[in-house]
Amino acid sequence: MNDKRTAVVLLSGGLDSATVLAIAQDEGYRVAALSFRYGQRHEHELACADRLCAKAGVAQHVVLDIDLRQFGGSALTSEMAVPKHASVDEIGAGIPVTYVPARNTVFLSFALAWSEVLRASDLFIGVNALDYSGYPDCRREYIEAFEKMANLATKGAVEGSLPIRLRTPLIDLTKAQIIRRGLDLGVDYGLTTSCYDPTTSGLACGGCDACLLRLRGFAENGLADPAAYVA
Q1: pTM reported for the whole predicted model
Q2: Is the CATH number of domain 6-220 3.40.50.620?
């Protein structure tokens, strides 16, 4: 008899979510992975999510289709150009145009709905508030507010049988620390992608915020990034 608890893990196919997947499994959870095809220009990440699930032995992997291109408002869901920089030092302090309006709220709402069906108290998301692009829905204040809302809005939580915990194991880690944690757990980062503007074949651009933060994280560990980049 398998008495493992189930956790819903938001899995984009990127470095952070791959690490969170490994952490959830290391803690003994049976993972139900949830990915989204939401009109993102970097849809190549979904192939990475599939490969990660196959390697990790994840039995339940749902890819939901929601088209946020109908709203636009982001360089990831419109024809707006993705900003490129020569180094991490050039990344601005404001909220960039790659922010997708309310994306984590949308994703977590679907994860919450699935968790009720699965009787899963724990939802894992790979948000980070240190080496990140400044998105407002990656901050601890947001996570705490969503968890509070979830416990007010779901049948199991209101009845006291299924309290909701929003798990964010990476929120206070640098990208270098995230990579080290994942490597210790056996994550194959060659299966992941982080680029906001990859080529049609999935090669990373090397100049967007996500690529630069990722590259610095590997460099700070004295390692080469195993992802494939445009020459």
Answers
A1: 0.95
A2: yes
Please name the residue that has the structure tokens 């970097």. Answer: 42
**Cβ distance 52 to 18 under 8 Å?**
yes
Q: What is the DSSP letter of 191?
A: G
**What are the residue boundaries of the structural domains of the chain, listed by start?**
6-220
How large is the angle between the packed helices 45-56 and 15-26, nearest 10 degrees?
20
Encoding tokens for residue 127? 């948000």
- How confident is the model over 180-190, as pLDDT tens digits? 999 999 999 99
CB 147 within 8 A of CB 124: no
Three-state DSSP at 22 gives helix
- Phi, psi (rounded to 5 degrees) for 205: -75, -30
- Residue 3, pLDDT score: 58
Cα separation, 23 vs 77, in Å, equals: 30
